[in-house]
Amino acid sequence: MAKRSAEPNDSDRIEGFAHPRETATLLGQDVALGRAARALRAGRPPSAWLITGPPGIGKATLAYRIARYLLAYGATDAGPEDLSVPDDHTATRQVLAQSHPGLLVLKRAINPKTGKLMTVLSVDEIRRLADFFGMTSGAGGWRVAIVDTADDMNDNAANALLKMLEEPPPNAMLLLLSNLPGRLLPTIRSRCQRLELRPLDDETLQLGLRKHLPDADSDERASLARLSGGSLGAALTLATGDGAALAKEADRLIDNARDPDLLALLTLGEKLFRTRDGLELFGNFLGEALTDRIRARAHGGGAELERWVSLLGRIEQGFSRAAALNLEPRQTVLTMARDISRVARGGAL
After folding, report:
1. How crowded is residue 147: how many other Cβ atoms within 10 Å of its Cβ?
2. Fewer Cβ atoms within 10 A, N terminus or C terminus of the chain?
3. 231-270: per-residue pLDDT in tens?
4. In what order do the strands lie in the sheet with 193-196?
5. Which pTM was predicted?
């Protein structure tokens, strides 16, 4: 029997808060949860689910919930309708300890030479699926693999995953998480059933913030909700570390678009270089801030609005590419500031 290597690092953990595998509550995603529950409890689950939606709205939490249920009860109606599993159940304890033989979690690995997180989910990681699904089934008769996220796969990894999807083994399930499913191979998307998660409404988001940030006042929670775009994860990130400061920098960059401060932008680039996942985080905040302004202008329409929408796509692609290739933050920030300035002054990109 092949030896399972340890689950990769918790790079997706928000500092100071529980990891998705430690989270029993899934907020605001009753539609997706209900669909998954009906399929599992009827004994007819798909071999692969593609769980989609923006970052921080519960994709990983739902994936772990499905995994715990399958490992505890199999594809039967023996467990609760909401797919919950008791805290003292063996499956829950083993998943929490990252020791369940029937669960494999694939993420971007740590580069042993540099000690840093790799920029892609490599083909070597995906190839672990073949050995894992070839092993004896876990205690519940099922093997479950979570790919977090499928967006991180390079081309070779995507092709290796596709082969696994073409010939799925019995009593095995793949749970693919994706923030941007449109960028996945169409053949991967077509071989998965989709569970689409939506951004949280304000009431649900406020409920989550009251639970996780009991000491925050109502004005602070309202500000976090406004900036988060319906993502509890984004709101909690804003509340810790440099998140709030980066969100303000994103607003400032757009507010001063006509006359950007070069020195301030260079200082921001240095800060992003020193901040963990700083460039990616700032790109998300900048995209959200620009989206808010596009919504405000939407009633007017016309060529001006089209230029702002085109700019949003350029920013999203630029920051995604910069983060994936580990590009220098200062140049990325300067390039985006230049493009924003051109649109603000009425020029075309």
Report:
1. 27
2. N
3. 998 888 888 767 777 878 888 898 888 888 889 999 998 8
4. 103-106, 143-148, 172-178, 48-52, 193-196
5. 0.76
